[in-house]
Amino acid sequence: MKGFHDKKKGIAITYDDIYLINGARTPFGKLCGTLGNVSPTDLGIYASREALK
Question: What is the pTM of this model?
Answer without folding.
Answer: 0.45
